[in-house]
Amino acid sequence: MQTFLDDVAKIITASHDELNRVKIIVPSIRSISFLKEALKKQINSPKIAPEIVSIESFIKDLSGLERIPKVELYFKFREVYIKNTPKKKQDSLNQFFNWAPSLIQEFNEIDSQLVNPDFLFDFMGAIGKIQQWNPKSIENTTNRYSDFQKEIPKLYKLLYKHLLNQQQGYAGMQLREAVRNLTFYTETELPFHYFVGFNALTKAEEAIIQELLATDKAEILWDIDQQFFSDPFHGAGYFIRQYYKNWNALKSEKKNTFPELFASEKHIEIINIAKNTTQAKTAVHLATDLYQENPNQSTVVVLGDESLLQPTLSSLSGKDLPWNITMGYPLRSSSFSAFFSTFFEIFHQERESGYPLSLVKELMQIEFIDSILEQNGKKIKTILKDYEKSNCLFIPNKFLTQVSEVAGIIFSPFKTVPLFLDRMQKLMVIINEYYLVNNEESIQLNYSERFKSFWEEISILQRTRPYMLSLKDVEMVFDILLEKETLDFYGDSQSNLQIMGLLETRLLDFDNVIITNLNEGIIPFGKTPVSSIPFDVRKKFGMTTFIEQDHLYAYHFFRLLQRSKKIFLLYNSSAEGMFSGEKSRFLVQLEYFKSLKHELIFKQVELPLKNEIISIQKGSKTKAVLEQLDEMAKEGFSPSSLTQYIRNPYLFYEQRMLKVKPLDSLESEISAIDKGTIMHKVLEVLYLPFLNKELLVDDFDQILEKLPKTLKINFNKISKNNDFITGKNFIIYSVMHRILKSFIIEEKESILQGDILIIKALEHEFSSPVWIESLQKKIVFKGTVDRIDSLNGVLRFVDYKTGNVTANDLVFSDWSEVSYDPKKSAIFQVLLYSYILQEDFLHHDCIAGVIPLKNFKNTFLEVSKREGYNSKATIKINLDIYKAFEKELFSIIEEIYDPNTPFIFKK
Amino acid sequence: MKSLTFITLLKSLNQTNFHIINAAAGSGKTYTLVLRYLIQLLESKNTKSYRNILALTFTNKAVNEMKERILMTLLYLSNNSLKGEKIEKTLCSALNIDSKELGLRAANKLRLILFEYGSFDIITLDKFTHRIIRSFSKELNLPYGFEVIIDPTALLEETVNSIIDEVGKEKSLTSLLTDFSIDKVTQDQSWNIQKDLYDFSSILLNENDRFPLADLKKKTIKEHRGDRLILIKEQRKAERKIRITADKILMVIQEKRLEGNDFIRGTLPKHFQWAKEGKYSKLYTNRLESELHGQIPLYKKGLDTFKKELIDEIKPQLLKAFIKIKKNVGIYLLIKRTLKSLTPISLLQLMGERLESLQNQKEVRLLGEFNSKISKLVQDTTTPFIYERLGERYKHYFLDEFQDTSQLQWSNLVPLISDSLESESLTGEKGSLLIVGDPKQAIYRWRGGDIQQFANLLNKKSKPFQIETKIENLEVNYRSGEAIVSFNNSFFSSLSELFKADEFQRIYGLGSNQKSQIEGGYVNIQVIPKGGLKEENNILYVSKTLDSVKRAIDANYDPYEIAILVRKREQASSIGDGLIKAGYSILSSESLVVGKSKKVQVVLSILRLFIQPNDPVQHKLILDAFWELSQGSNKEYHTFILNYANLSSDSFFKDLGAKFGFNFTLNNRRYSSVLEVSEYIMEEFVHLLSPSDPFLSAFLEDIFEFSSMQSQMISSYLKHWERQEDKLRITTSASTNAINVMTIHQSKGLEFPVVILPFLDTTINPNLQDKIWYPFQEGPLSTIQWGWVNASKEMQLYGDIGDSLYNQHILAQQFDAVNVLYVAMTRAKEQLYIISKEVITAGTSSYSYLLDNFVQLQGKKLDSLTSFEWGAFKEKKQNKKHLKELEVEVERLQIQQSISTQWRKRLVVSSSLNTQTSLAQIKGLLIHEILSKVVYADMLQKVLEETFNNKLVQKNQDYICNKVRQVIEHPMLSKYFERDQSVFCEQDVLVPNGDTLRPDRVNILNDGSAVIIDYKTGEPKETDGLQVDKYVQIYLELGYLHVEKLLVYINDEIFVKN
Ligand code: SF4
Asked: How far apart are CA B169 and CA B192, in angstroms?
């Protein structure tokens, strides 16, 4: 196809034989190589190339100022600010970064639009005075701000001077200075200048180009369609129309005519897609098809939202197509960025007992960390595993730093900013060297180069301007540095499958165009105020507003369509959450003002949605299951496994038979199970010395005295944290202490009242076989009784319950409840104890029950049977009870063995 | 309110510039808004009139619809299209112009709007506030470029956790929170206070709580401690008063020798006895008060006259004591409730501070805080300034869905609006305001929507502006068939009789009746038998729903024309399951939950294993998925799981991979971010996890969003997932032919030919969790300011304030319930099926009663056997085309997706650094770069300075400087670096359709010959010469007669070769 650059090359070669006497200025570096290729198509013999420069470097040369890097600029501004602000009023670095970047952006605009700063600031000040500030305003936020507002003109000038002295400048400064130097420039002998493909120039650029045009040493070549130019309502032609209206050099020119290509035949599909990544995938899908149809045509995929690059890349798939990516990959999405965020997080979450184990583990997942640690990486992983086994959630840093020098660099705690920066630089050198030696993917080497240079830059900044005081400050500066930075991909610019951002398409033309994210707010950006300079003031001072911004997008968008044949326009139709789902005005324009020869098709991408419930029958009793049950019967069924069966047979199957039990959680908080374990253990330890003797009041005093220490020891064992207790654990610790204390005091009180208590056994383990006739099987039952005691001559089988249990839960009306109702599981449990152990603890008077330890009401609740509406009778364990319970017990076991009853899932 | 036809309505436009339109469901609200907007737009002489109009609504969807309709209408008008005929006439007469002029104006405005679309301000209220906040971010001290967070859950959780974390470190906090926990345990609740604090923290963001919050946030923890003492003191005081009073009166009774059973049921002495003993809970569940007031007898009929007289004698004393006790019991209980929540209340300040600093730290802002921030701004700043910042001076305002606007939103808008409404511009143009809403569709009270606000405007109780209000009713229903309209008219009128409140009358009374436009319509009410367990009722509701679906389908309705609306999500899922089992395809919010997809669960399991390997639970989940997909038999399942589940994760994937043919390992270190890892998983398990699966695709989308906005860490993502696994749904378009299942709230603004409403037995005052702020106003308690109490009957004991707060609450709940019902019942166009539950007695406590009452009023009976019908059941008219204004043929595009993580290998990142680059080469590149800039020797110093200034630090700096200097000073080369010669440094030479060549340096000598100098930093190679020879060749072709070449090797030694 005949592209714009082909036209340009033709014009230039036609009028200049010696190309090295020509200087061509283009909007971006990216287009230089494309223009060279176009020129080569037009020449017959070798030629020394013309000088082709981007406008940015043209301005830089003209201004004599170096562009100052972003963060350095902020730091120099900080310096100016600190020097000129009374100490009391100085914002912290963090606060400073809240407003400084946007203020500098405004300075930048003021300069590039050649606004007289004095006039502007005076004017703004005048509006400020008109406002009636509310004197009673409590927070006085606005007032404080208006004080600061007065300082802005001063800061602007000081910064300008400061930078100028060092022959540095931000973009706007370069432009202002370039305009100042223009006369010197035009007085020298100049090659012929071509300005190619410009649009939306700053006032400074306009001034420079106009001046050069006036000397007849320059020409400007626009890339625009006649339709956009002559339609007064077309955004794409907005700027160029303005130039033709306002520039003397152009006014004199005869009415220019531009090619009329936009109205030519085009196939346009407007495709709506829910959300983002699917757009990327659709775009790749379309481009692949187009390429396979006709490999000689050029196709471009324009990612309206450049963050779609990663999903685009992953859907490029294994197909071997000549993709070329002409855009930057955001460094934020790199593994290095992931590394640093985890890394900083480790320090933020550091405690006295060390770093959080889980984060250290996550850090070790990152590819280069493991690599640079070499063999020591394995060592660290072993250490981490050991630590995990010993139930610790935090790992003291010394265990890690000791391993090797590199580990020391990574894991040393943060002390001061300079030391930290030093470490970071060292770390980056090590990583960088690793990739220089071992590099399968050049992308990783490039990342490491870039991150290395970031840390170098931060270090230098800190050395000269030590404004960073904490790790948080460092992280903030690092984040700002990283923000919007990309890693540029290079490749075959002549390839017929290109992926790029909308801005990169300047000057280029393609047969097929696919654009994603055609939504308001993206293309075009639309109205989003970020400036403190009001709209009206901006208009008055000739600064750009969202209106100009949107016309710029219109230019990029429509220009790209101008010469193409097949066009696919994708937009997000989801109106949820962050998305508006509003399609771009440009799509409406294509539809409403449809050119006759445009074929317009609307499509919608849908993923096939099926309502299907697949589920296999799990938990049926196959031979293997029954065999395993026999194994378990030999091992023994515990009351808890049987109550689990009563509650939910499938869980019994999953956890006891398939042995799929959840692991301990990675949380440092005490769980309900932990809580139970600790309280059981403490009571065991405390009462053990008094086994088989009558408990006296003095004994309880001893127990009470030992309580705090015993609890603490056992708590620390379980809590996986060698720290002193804080947070939730502190609360639960206090609660447990209070509960245990109140329980012990209650027992003491009862002794004072004359009760006689003898503890017979604590945490008593048992295991005993029972023959079940109906199954012809011997089944073992095993378990642990928390406490067996005798109170006033009555033997009690006691279970401590730290969870929910009410008196009602220990009362049943019908025996079947005991084996079927999960709410009565406590009854089942304690009766099973007495069923098995009765013979061991022969006693004529025997009951069973629980001691609730959930709150401060810890009276023994005995198993009893409901007699009437409001009465119940304690179950005394005798032969009848024994038989009745046995029946229930056997029925459960029979059901478990019944091959026709699957393990069902009960909610 | 009198009703007007459209034309008269339009004529009245000029009389005032503040209009309120009360737009009932289906009354063509959007049409009216669009029409009004167009009148404003096309009337104005100012060609950029759209710049002065601001239209605000609630959802993006509404915004998009309104914008589309306006643009489309303008297009029709400018094309003279038939589709715009109706509105054209209306507009012509309203604007008093002919259709030609109208067409011209429309065409002009359409182009202008599309040209300056950013000023076409029809936006959501949220976006508008966001815009204000952004423009004032400096004044509000907000971080530059903050992100907006809609869901506050994560931040609130973090706030609460950060406070709890400090227990054990900070003394007063420690005792405060431990006491709170112990207090809870005493009341037999969980010791865990996390949830209590979390629930409380939402107060910080809830607009309904803003006044108490502002007061309470001012108090320090110490002051709150003081409050606690006051409360306890007052509580004891009340207790004492009760005891003494009870004691005294019991003495009196005793003195009179009266016995308990002298009184009816023995209540009275028992009452005072209980009061004395502090048993307050059942004191007022009897009819004692009426007895004492003499409305019903106090003693038994058979009591002897002497005793009767005795009792009558002391009756005034009894009553006095009764009232005194009641009052104090009220105080006692009120204090008890207040004390219960005092701990979290005293933490509000701290929580507020934490939330603020967390937001700053993360550079995020909660959407929920915007309105209160703006409110502060509006108070502090004069409104014109706010406009100037925003960029536009709006003159005309359109507010949609006013019933859902919160007080704060409205009070923030009032000053902005009044500024233009009450003043005239220089051209004499007046501003205007049009408010549109329907108080009957107010269903967002819980998030700040205030129905009273709209009601007050309608009955002119509140007058926010100095000018007259004009209220208009849209009373024609363009949506539903005649029977549905009349059914709703009578049903809701019957309710307004039932609920006696005036507010009800005003909103639902006769005046709210709609006129129908469309013939037909059918309503059917059925009930399931009374009683029954929840599960059984569920089954009945589902089966009745299926019957109704079948009936509609048999009457030729397509599945997509049917909607089943429910109140709760679990109801949606049981209906959904039932429909799927019966073979229907459905589109339900529940069936779209991403977390329910097995495939998504597999990816999540693997992600969890990355964080905590060897977890058999995750293994089993993966195994189950493999088992299902490989269609394994039940027989082998047990051993299959047993064999694999308890392996270490490493062997698990290895062994499973060997069996199913994949090659996956958790130790693939190439991938570290959650997105990379997930893609890696999907790539390796491609047979199991197709990327074209909508659930997986949505899941990946969520990971993508989360990692680009927040964090790339797997563990952070998993935490994020836990918070939203029930919420995340896939987005589908409505184009599938499936039955819609959704909640009534979601259905707002939609319409369907057939609507089925099962589960309509909800109680009217269901939410016992509701809390109410009690303002302490008198006595020592006034320093407490606010108590936080349960919205229960008990409040009636708290005195007049409590009583009226309670009544307000009940009324609000009734409104909520009836409004929800109204929204549900007005969605139907042709058929409405209602499925409720049988009742025994009359009442108002649930939807079932309301329906039953209505049916009885019609003289009919409603039970499980008899259903009630209104209107005639008809089949759908075939080929009835719904004339949408623009029918766009939408084609469906299905794409095959695949995922591959292999792209990283294929990318070339930069031209200079590639996989072969070594440290030495980096040095070489730099030397090249410097030499290319040193045209003449005297430029060296400057070039070196520039180079190293920019590069900040460079290793090997000295080495490089030395080498460069050695080259320039080299005896064979130095002459080429002298001044006054023509030199090309790295000058490209273009070759027709060939390469671009770039010799390092070319000196053009005075005799017209050229010297080509090429630098090499590696060891000499055979091929080095070839490249230079090519340069020589090209320079000869360029016309230089004599070309010399010099190869300069820059290594330890500088070596020049000819
Ligand atoms: S060696 Fe150091 S001082 Fe000498 S020229 Fe090089 S950079 Fe400058």
From this structure: 18
- In whole angstroms, give the CA distance from residue A113 to residue A100: 20
Whole-number Cα distances in Å, A904 to A114, A618, A662, B601, B617: 78, 8, 19, 21, 18
Q: Among the atoms of ligand 1, which is closest to the Cα of residue B948?
A: 7
A548 vs A199: CA distance, rounded Å: 11
Q: Tell me if A658 and B634 make a contact (CB, 8 A cut-off).
A: no
* Spans in chain B with pLDDT lower than 50: 1-5, 7-8, 11-12, 880-889, 911-916, 952-953
Which pLDDT tens digit goes with each residue over A9-68? 999 999 988 888 899 999 988 888 889 989 999 998 888 999 999 999 999 999 999 999
Rounded alpha-carbon distances, angstroms, from residue B413 to B56, B88, B461: 11, 33, 19
Instruction: List own/partner pairs for B109-113 with CB under 8 A and 24 or more apart.
Output: B109/B41, B109/B42, B109/B47, B109/B49, B109/B50, B109/B74, B110/A592, B110/B71, B110/B74, B110/B75, B110/B78, B111/A233, B112/A233, B112/B47, B112/B48, B112/B50, B113/B50, B113/B71, B113/B74
Model confidence, pTM: 0.86
Q: Is B252 exposed, middle or buried (0-12, 13-18, 19+ CB in 10 A)?
A: middle
Extract the tokens encoding B415.
Answer: 């000053």
B466 contacts B422 by C-beta, under 8 angstroms = yes
Q: Which residues contact B539 (CB under 8 A, 6 or more apart)?
A: none
Q: What is the pLDDT of residues B267-322, one digit of tens each?
A: 778 888 888 888 887 788 777 777 777 777 777 777 788 888 888 888 888 888 88
Under a CB-based contact definition with an 8 Å cutoff, are residues A47 and A74 in contact? no
CB distance A332–B675 less than 8 Å? no
Query: What is the total residue count of chain A?
Result: 907
- Tokens 């009041």, located at residue: A697
- Beta-carbon separation of B892 and A39 below 8 A: no
Ligand 1 atom closest to residue B965's alpha carbon, by position in its atom list = 5
Instruction: Write the pLDDT tens digit of every residue in A76-121.
Output: 999 999 999 988 888 889 889 888 988 999 999 999 999 999 999 8
Helix locations, A113-218, DSSP H:
117-130, 141-165, 171-187, 203-214
Please give the backbone phi and psi of residue A890, each rounded to the nearest 5 degrees, phi first: -65, -35
The confidence score (pLDDT) of residue B807 equals 86
Helix (H) / strand (E) element for B1054: namely strand B1054-1057
Report DSSP state, residue A284.
H
Q: Cα(B961) to centroid of ligand 1, in Å?
A: 6
Q: Whose CA is nearest to atom 1 of ligand 1?
A: B958
CA of B962 to the centre of ligand 1 (A): 8
> Beta strands of B632-692 (E only): which ranges?
none
d(CA A117, CA A152): 10
* CA B944 to centroid of ligand 1, rounded, Å: 8
Among left, alpha and beta (phi > 0; psi -120 to 50; other), residue B579 is: alpha
- DSSP assignment of A755-771 equals --EEEEEEEEEEEEEEE
Q: Which residues on A lie below 8 Å from B704 (Cβ)? A: 276-277, 310-311
Return all residues near B396 (Cβ < 8 A) that are at least 6 apart: B40, B52, B53, B54, B420, B431, B432, B433, B434
How far CA A99 is from CA of A152, B135, B353, in Å, comes to: 12, 12, 21
For chain A, the C-alpha Rg in angstroms (whole number) is: 40
Do the chains contact at A616 and B632, CB–CB below 8 Å?
yes
Chain-chain contact of B116 with A547 (C-beta, under 8 angstroms): yes
pLDDT in tens, B348-373: 888 888 898 888 877 888 888 888 88
Option in A45, A658, A735 nearest B181 (CB): A735
CA of B936 to the centre of ligand 1 (A): 18
The β-bridge relationship of strands A497-501 and A486-488 is unpaired
Phi and psi (nearest 5°) for B44?
Answer: -65, 140
